[in-house]
UniProtKB/TrEMBL annotation:
InterPro entries: AgrB. GO terms for cellular component: membrane. It comes from the Bacteria. It holds the Pfam family AgrB. Keywords: Cell membrane, Hydrolase, Membrane, Protease, Quorum sensing, Transmembrane, Transmembrane helix. The chain crosses the membrane at residues 45-68, 80-101, 107-128, 148-164, 170-190. GO terms for biological process: proteolysis; quorum sensing. This is Accessory gene regulator B.
Length: 213
């Protein structure tokens, strides 16, 4: 895997100061690379939300997905840059869709919320935590702990949906819709089909060149 020059420089500096091995320096470089990409991607997503006028929805999406992904896991791209691109496109799409859904009848939004919570809870019980080959969960105790934490997070999200429904905040319905769609997205990533879709995207090619963002 090729790394950004800044990631290599930071890792090289840390390696020189601590005297770690080449293998450990490679791990540190990867960690720094992913951290920088995540920071860049978060700022990029926020700017997109600001540009498209969907900032409340996109912030809600970021928080909701981050909470669930940290505990329930889900499908990942094998490229941090590709994963960042997919995340930016999906989060922007969710925030735009949430903006439109905030204008539908409340009973329809409530129905979507109930469906999202039920489906999400069911898939967490059935599948979570979903790990990745690069970061497998080997401990049964940790698996159980993450599953319980994911269910607690889903409970918190359910309460947040109810509070947003009753709130007088001008963006409450937009945020509620963003939470609902974010739960659907995270639930999708827990499934085998979600993994197949991510794998398909990873293997996409244009002509003879692999798509590699």
């Amino acid at each position: 895997m090729s790394y950004l020059p800044i990631s290599k420089r930071i890792a090289g500096y840390l390696s020189a100061r601590t005297g770690i091995s080449d293998e450990q320096e490679e791990i540190v470089t990867y960690f720094i690379e992913v951290t920088l990409i995540n920071i860049f991607n978060t700022l990029n997503i926020l700017l997109l939300g600001l540009f498209f006028g969907t900032l409340p929805g996109i912030i809600t999406c970021l928080i909701t997905v981050a909470m669930l992904r940290q505990t329930a896991g889900g499908a990942h791209s094998n490229s941090p840059w590709r994963c960042a691109l997919i995340t930016a496109v999906v989060f922007l799409s969710i925030s735009v869709a949430a903006s439109y859904l905030s204008h539908i009848k409340q009973i329809y939004l409530d129905s979507l919320a109930i469906a999202a919570v039920l489906i999400g809870t069911f898939l967490i019980i059935l599948l979570a935590p979903v790990d990745s080959p690069s970061a497998p969960i080997l401990s049964d105790a940790r698996r159980k702990r993450l599953k319980i934490m994911a269910l607690i997070i889903m409970g918190i999200i359910s309460v947040a949906i109810i509070l947003l429904r009753q709130s007088s905040w001008i963006y409450a319905l937009e945020a509620q819709a963003a939470v609902v769609l974010s739960v659907f997205w995270t639930s999708f990533n827990l499934t085998r089909f979600g993994h197949h879709v991510m794998s398909y995207i990873d293997n996409l090619k244009i002509g003879s060149r692999e798509v590699n963002h």
